[in-house]
Amino acid sequence: MNVLNRKMEKLGIRIWTKKKLDPRYITLEQVSATVAYVDKSLFIKEFLDSKEIVLIMAPSGFGKTVNMDTLKQFLLGNSFIFESHHLKIRIEHPEFFKRHCRKHPVIHVNFAHIDCTSHATYLSSMKDLLFATFNEHAYLTEKTEDGKFVWSDLTLRTYLKFPPEMVMIYMYDRELSEELTQNDVIQGLRILSIFLYLHWNEEVIVLIDEYDAPLKQIMKQKNMADAELILTDFTSMVSAVLNNSECVERALINTCFCPEAQVPTYRRHLFLNNPKFSKYYGFTKEEVVGLFKCKELKRLRRTLDDVHKWYGGYELADETTTMYNSRSILTYLTQSVICRKPVLSSHWFNWNHEIKWKQLFAVRCIREKIETLLNGGEIEVPMTGLLTVGDILVPKSLIDLKPEVINEEAANTFIQFLCLSGYFSVKRTTDDNVVVKIPNLETKYELEKKCHDVGLFQRKYKLDQNKIEEYGNALKKVAQNKDSNALIGLKNAVQELFASPAVLPTSDNQFCSLLYTLAYCEDLYVAKVKRGEEVIETLDFLIVEENTGIMMEVRLDSESAEKAHSGIFDYESDVFEYSNFKEITDKVYVGLHLDKERNVTLCYSVNQAEGEKL
């Protein structure tokens, strides 16, 4: 073994075949056959030694499913993959491997495909899951050495309120399982844990993947009564099996977020905030550098600095360790090897529940927080890592509200969801508060897409694409010419934009968000300006084109263009003290007004306070 390979051995890095994988559903068998594999198998020892119910809260793309599948294969006794790939758990801890491999009964469930369209579909799909899970243990329907069935053991009757033989019949027959009651479904996994415990005379290990998948679906639920009923049933079912402490000693739960614990023995490990488990989720900088030392990836080494910028930047609580999105790294390396061309871009996977979130980025109190982050700033928000049942339903509630009704508390809860989804690097300042920032170009790109989605506004306000382009061109002409003709062109462009059949905005906030986003999407530099550590509340937006700055205030109905224009000068000097804008030499001040009859008036001035109305 050469020096490089020995170094790679220390890092736990293996390079295998050039096999492409679907980054959404990665198992140990799949990932160990890809262009890059980082050995995290020591997680197994860390987990089994803990003897507790561990809930891992980490974003999608950081290897939760791979780690769980690695643990599952170990518990099922599939030792070949550990031996053939010389994984650390097999090489460094042979006695532990021998003592625990295939020595524990295990229940594994994945909630990814539970249908929460209604309470009825939830129950039906959960019955499918229970049927499949029970049939992974079909040996329980066979007679034991003494000629008995495990479910005929009289001790079962001390655990169950109904005949155990009936449970076995219904759980192992898909047609009959349709007759299971709501309570039967809630108790299903608990019953299986009892059967396994009695059969093996050994505490059961429960593995739950995609715990938050039903919760994400509930966020889209139209019927609030159904949403609350599903949430109650779901958390009750999980609590029933995990509270069964006599039969269940350990459990591993993968999730991005979860409601408050109904199980007292939960040990939550929040992503980036727990040194015991955080190192097993995502790649460390050392591991990424090690991957690029391999001969198969030699030609990609020149992109390493860019890889840091695109996929790294997640800082652990110790502030000395930087983590990377492992799925993005894997996808980048795999595609680069297969296509023989580096593809530095976003490999983020947008889940369906996040698509609904996009319209919330147009809400001003949310948008201002995101803009601060996009401009390189940090914000402090409350986050305990524990969500109430009400919090789970917050995104749906926000979508149903008018933007101006959304308050600071609701906006902070939404930011917490974004944190738990992996958009930010999080540093805890107190028990209840964290400071968040954008870690890398990948998440910045995704947030910019959501924050500046012109398609959303086009559909909502029925805007014509040609008129959007005319608005963008008019702004550019104002920056270039800075004269009355250019400003008349801007006034006319805005009036045409909102000509019938366009839908009029109903508040200053909506009007501002709309014009802001359309300007951004027309390749103009649009900024939300900071005043010290605070975002200026009253300035709508600043457009910068070369050495020209266009400060804009917009108003609806009862206000006026003149009032909007004069309001700019209350804080104009502070704006241009901001370092990013000190090079601006020409300043155009624009107050814009739109009334209910779709008439637009404009008041402007160039390098002076006195305005001219158009």
Automatic annotation (TrEMBL):
The residue ranges of the AAA-ATPase-like domain are 34-252
InterPro entries referenced in this protein's UniProt entry, alphabetically:
AAA-ATPase-like_dom
- The lineage's top-level taxon is Eukaryota
**A single Pfam family, by name?**
AAA-ATPase_like
Q: What is this protein called?
A: AAA-ATPase-like domain-containing protein
Q: What is the source species? A: Zophobas morio
